[in-house]
């Protein structure tokens, strides 16, 4: 049995568990890759576990629901005579909704949860969002729209999250590197000095 056949069978029998395990594994893989390409740092297995946890517990379920919602969206208006053009037009419509609706909310969700999982305070979440949200969103818009048009036009809905997760290995590496910026890149808040 091929890996894709095994995945498809597992997805049919146990969709939530399969999505959770594969998404967590791929988020963790992205973090491992990020740590290996980041010079001079020791490997932090807790960071990988946080990434895998986020992928398994948060993103797998949100992503699954989101792709099911997107699968029902069609371009408003009359269908075209050419079914392929309809697929592409619907894919562009879904991608627009995904990139203008989900991405601007999903990015701060990632940074917020990862910062809280690092046992940091809410003020640090705000700092991380202020520094990372817009730059990450801009990079997101350079990468994801072309892929999502293809994914949401051609890939069957049950495999769309997996397709996203495969590209996400590299995207998650980027997010992990950005999330783990060193202290010198962040504002330093010193405790007050007693007089």
Automatic annotation (TrEMBL):
Cellular component, GO annotation: membrane; mitochondrion
The keyword Amino-acid biosynthesis appears for this protein: no
PANTHER family, per the entry: PEROXISOMAL MEMBRANE PROTEIN 2, PXMP2 MPV17, PROTEIN MPV17
Origin species: Wickerhamomyces ciferrii (strain ATCC 14091 / BCRC 22168 / CBS 111 / JCM 3599 / NBRC 0793 / NRRL Y-1031 F-60-10) (Yeast)
Family: Belongs to the peroxisomal membrane protein PXMP2/4 family.
Keywords attached to this entry: Membrane, Transmembrane, Transmembrane helix
Compartment(s): Membrane
The protein's name in its UniProt record: Protein SYM1
Protein's membrane topology: Multi-pass membrane protein
Keyword Magnesium: no
């Amino acid at each position: 049995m091929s890996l894709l056949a095994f995945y498809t069978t597992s997805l049919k029998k146990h969709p939530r568990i399969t999505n959770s395990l594969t998404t967590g594994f791929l988020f963790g893989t992205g973090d491992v890759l990020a740590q290996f390409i980041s010079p001079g740092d020791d490997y932090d297995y807790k960071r990988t576990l946080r990434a895998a946890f986020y992928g398994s517990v948060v993103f797998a379920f949100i992503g699954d629901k989101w792709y099911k919602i997107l699968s029902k969206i069609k371009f408003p208006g009359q269908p075209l005579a050419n079914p392929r053009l309809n697929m592409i037009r619907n894919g562009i419509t879904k991608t627009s909704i995904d990139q203008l609706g989900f991405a601007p909310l999903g990015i701060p969700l990632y940074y917020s949860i990862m910062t809280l999982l690092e046992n940091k305070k809410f003020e640090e979440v705000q700092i991380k969002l202020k520094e990372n949200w817009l730059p990450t969103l801009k990079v997101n818009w350079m990468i994801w729209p072309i892929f999502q048009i293809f994914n949401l036009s051609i890939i069957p809905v049950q495999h769309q999250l997996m397709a996203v997760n495969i590209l996400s290995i590299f995207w998650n590496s980027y997010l992990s590197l950005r999330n783990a910026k060193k202290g010198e890149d962040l504002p330093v808040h010193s405790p007050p000095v007693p007089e």
